[in-house]
Specification:
2 copies of one chain form a homodimer. Chain A is an alpha+beta fold. The first copy, chain A, contains 6 helices and 8 strands, in the order ααβαβββαααββββ. In chain A, β3 and β4 form a beta hairpin.
C-alpha cells in the first residue's frame, strides 16, 4: 500500500535520509499519519499530538508541516504508539492507534510491536513486507477533541541577558539563565 | 554565505517545506549547525543537544541525521539559542551559540533576536539579507564535554496491555497506561 504520494520503497528511502535507517516504527507510523490526515476535512489547519517519543514523531514530521521546531507537533511521552491530528482552532480531530487485535494477522509486526522477539532475531525484510501489506489496516481511528492545554500559540517571552554567562535567555527573577542557575548541560574541555 | 551544500535560497525553500515558513530562527540556526558539524573530526558519529524548543531543533533535523524520533536530538528547553553536537560515545564536541556582541553589526537580526521590535514591524526581507550576509560570523563555538546523562541509548522497555483501554504501553505497577491512570489528552467526540 502506498504512503500518501509515495510508494513504500520511496518512503523507506526518505526515512533513511531523515531518520538514518528505515525503522519499522516510522514506516508503520507513516500509514497512521496518512489515515489521520485524510480523516480531516480538506484544508484543515491542523496540529499534532504524539503519545510516544520513539519513531512516530518522525513520521509526523516527514508527512505534515507539524515539527518539533515550529511547535505544531507536541509530544507527551506516554510510551503509546498513537497520535492525534486536530484542527488548531477547535481541537477537533482524529486519534489513530494500532490495534493489537488486527495485528494478530501479522506475526512479525506483533513480535516487533510487543517486543517479544529480541531485535537481533527479527527478520527485518519480512517485517517490512508485512508492514507494506498491512498498510493502514492495523489502525484504529476515533474522533476526538484535544484537551484545551494543547491549543493556542505559545506566547513569545521577553528576553534578558544572563548576568553570569552574558547570553540571551527568557526573562526571570534570578537574573541568570537556567544553566547558570544550576542545570549544567556540559563542561568545558580545556 | 552558503549553508553546507545549499545556497541560502535553496535552504529557505527547504525550510518552507519542512517548517512551513522561512523562519529566521531556522535560517540562523542552519549556520550554527553547519559550524558545529565542521568542527567535529570527519566521520564522527554525533548526537545533538538543543537548548531551546523554538526553531533551532528544525535546523538540526534538516541538516543532520539527529531527529526527535530517533532520539539522537535531545531538547532541554532553557530558552537559549544554542546547540551542541558531540561524539555519541565520548561526549566530546562543540557548543555553538549566538554572540550578542557580534550581532550589534546587524540591527535587524539583533532586534529580532532580542524581541525589541514587534513582529509586524520587522522587515523580513532585510532580516533575511542580514542573516545570509552574516552567515556563521555571529556564532561563538566552544569545545565541550556533554553531561553523562545525555549519553547512551535509552533502553527499550517491556510492553504490557493496559487493563482499561486495551492498548499497549510500557510496563508499570498500576496495570494501566498513563492516560487511563489520569493524564487524559483528549475527550471522545460523540
Amino acid at each position: 500500500m502506498n504512503i500518501g504520494q509515495y510508494t513504500f520503497e520511496e518512503f523507506k528511502k526518505k526515512t533513511e535520509e531523515f531518520h538514518s535507517y528505515a525503522a519499522p516504527g516510522v514506516l508503520v507510523g507513516a500509514y497512521m499519519v496518512e489515515l489521520a490526515k485524510k480523516s480531516l476535512p480538506q484544508g484543515t489547519l491542523f496540529e499534532a499530538l504524539v503519545e510516544t517519543k520513539k519513531c512516530l514523531p518522525d513520521a509526523v514530521q516527514m508527512l505534515t508541516l507539524c515539527s518539533a521546531g515550529n511547535n505544531w507537533m507536541k509530544i507527551v511521552d506516554h510510551g503509546k504508539y498513537a497520535l492525534a491530528l486536530y484542527d488548531k482552532h477547535t481541537g477537533h480531530g482524529f486519534r489513530v492507534s494500532l490495534s493489537l487485535k488486527k495485528m494478530t494477522a501479522y506475526d512479525e509486526i506483533l513480535a516487533w510491536f510487543m517486543r517479544t522477539k529480541p531485535k537481533k532475531e527479527q527478520d527485518v525484510e519480512r517485517l517490512w513486507r508485512q508492514i507494506e501489506k498491512a498498510g493502514d489496516s492495523l489502525c484504529d481511528s476515533i474522533p476526538i477533541c484535544i484537551e484545551k492545554r494543547f491549543l493556542g500559540h505559545t506566547p513569545s517571552y521577553p528576553h534578558m541577558v544572563c548576568s553570569k554567562c552574558g547570553e540571551a535567555c527568557p526573562e526571570n527573577n534570578q537574573g541568570k539563565c537556567l544553566a547558570c542557575a544550576g542545570e549544567a548541560l556540559y563542561s568545558l574541555r580545556l
